[in-house]
Structure formats: structure tokens, C-alpha cells
Amino acid sequence: MPSGWAVLGDQQVLEGYSLLVPDPVTESLNDLDTEARARFLVDMPLLGDAVAACTPAYSVNYEILGNAEPALHAHVWPRFSDEPDEFKRGPVGRYPKETRDSVPFSSERHGTLQAELRACLERLLRE
Questions:
Q1: Which of 3, 57, 82, 124 could covalently link to 78 via disulfide, CB atoms 3.0 to 4.6 Å apart?
Q2: Strand 4-8 relative to strand 59-63: parallel, antiparallel, unpaired?
Q3: In the predicted model, what is the mean pLDDT of the chain?
Q4: How far, in whole angstroms, is CA 95 from its chain's centroid?
Q5: 33 to each of 23, 36, 38, 75, 127, how far by Cα in Å?
């Protein structure tokens, strides 16, 4: 990505969960100059567009929290119609930790999606 790196999350309970990490790494969105800040905030929904195009998500949620990791990163969460009702409408952090951690990323299981996301992002960035 022009602002940094798009990666699939270590956990894939919501398949397609991705992160945008700036390059160079910085602590906060507020630490970026205006141009870098704007680029990061343009790249974030581009990553969401790719996630939406490559998964059956009905919606994509975005989070920039900054209180757990001292490094800027944006979470891009696909949301699915078959999620349990008690978790469907709130932040993904409401899922129990054991559920969130139950589907670790693996190249074998998620490699095809990873390649599809890469191709979609390359196309979107050319447009």
C-alpha cells in the first residue's frame, strides 16, 4: 500500500480480517504529517473495499484504537450475516477471546484469500 503494509490478521475468526500498518512505523495517527495521514486514511477504506470484494461480508468495520499497541495500525473487520446475533451489532472485541483466537491464520487455509486480496488491491490502486 502507498502508506505501508496491508496484512491478514493473525486470527481469522472473521475471515478476511486485515490490518493496515504504516511504513515507517509510528506511534499514532497524530504523529504523521498531513500528507502521510491523508494517505493512510485513504488506504484504509481501499483495504476495506478489497476485503468486501473478496469475502461474502455484508459490511466492513474499521478501528484505530492505539491503547494496546504503541504503534499505529488500523483494523479492517469484515462482518457476516451468519455471525451470532449477540455479537453481530457490536465491536469484534465483544467476542470471547477464545472465539477470536480460534482460527489462526495459515497459508494453507487462507493463502487463496491472501492472493485474491493482493490482486484486488493492485487493481484498486491502479484505478
A1: 57
A2: unpaired
A3: 96
A4: 17
A5: 13, 5, 9, 21, 25
Around 61, how many Cα atoms within 13 Å sit in the side-chain half-sphere? 13
Which of helix, strand or coil describes residue 107? helix
End-to-end CA distance of the chain: 14
3-state secondary structure 67-91: CCCCCCCEEEEEECCCCCHHHHCCC
Dihedral angle over CA of 103, 106, 110, 114, nearest 10: 120
- Please state the domain extents for the chain: 4-126
Kindly give, in sequence order, each residue whose CB lies less than 8 Å from that of residue 33, ignoring residues fewer than 6 positions away.
none
**pTM for this one?**
0.95
4-126 has which fold? HIT family, subunit A (3.30.428)
Can you tell me whether residue 12 is helix, strand or coil?
coil
pLDDT < 50: residue spans in the chain: none
